[in-house]
Every structure is written in structure tokens, then in C-alpha cells.
Design goal:
- The chain has about 80 residues and is mainly alpha-helical.
- The chain folds into two domains: about 1-30, no CATH class; about 30-79, no CATH class.
- Helices cover about 50% and strands about 0% of the residues.
- It contains three helices and no strands.
- It has helices spanning about 10-25, 35-45, 70-79.
- Helix 2 (about 35-45) packs parallel to helix 3 (about 70-79).
- The longest helix is centred in the N-terminal third of the chain and has 15 residues, at about 10-25.
Length: about 80
């Protein structure tokens, strides 16, 4: 949603709104490292034990993922 301190979105509408807003303000460039982001989202999701929330991680890249092996490993480990 653009708020580093509280990056949560509310519902699919919130995710789509954040996505559209980011398209106007984000410049994509490398290196592109996704493993830290995957692990961060997984830690946040692990804190919600009652099933009251779900987490969506949308990965957008403009080319090569610099840490592809680590990103694959992170996705497998947190799934």
C-alpha cells in the first residue's frame, strides 16, 4: 500500500488499489532480490494464528531476479 510501517491492504480491492497506485510511482531496476520479501511476508503471516487474515504476495519484476535460487527456496520453505 506504500506505507512501510503498515503495509497491509484490506481485501482484494485494497490490493488492486495499491497495485495501481504503485504503477505510477515505482521505477523498476536491479538488482532484484525477492527472497527477503518472501521471508518477511511469511513471518508476518505466521503471527496470525487464528486464520482471521490471509496474505497475498504479488511479485512484479522487469526482468531477471538476481536471487532466483534463494527466492525459489524461500517460496518452497514458506508454502
Amino acid at each position: 500500500n506504500g506505507d512501510v510501517a503498515n503495509p497491509a491492504c484490506s481485501g482484494i480491492e485494497g490490493v488492486l488499489e495499491a497495485y495501481h497506485r504503485s504503477l505510477r510511482s515505482v521505477q523498476l531496476y536491479g538488482p532484484t532480490n525477492f527472497a527477503p520479501v518472501v521471508n518477511h511476508v511469511a513471518r508476518s503471516a505466521a503471527e496470525v494464528l487464528d486464520g482471521s487474515q490471509y496474505f497475498v504476495l504479488l511479485i512484479i519484476t522487469d526482468g531477471v531476479i538476481s536471487d532466483m535460487a534463494q527466492t525459489k527456496e524461500a517460496i518452497v520453505n514458506v508454502s
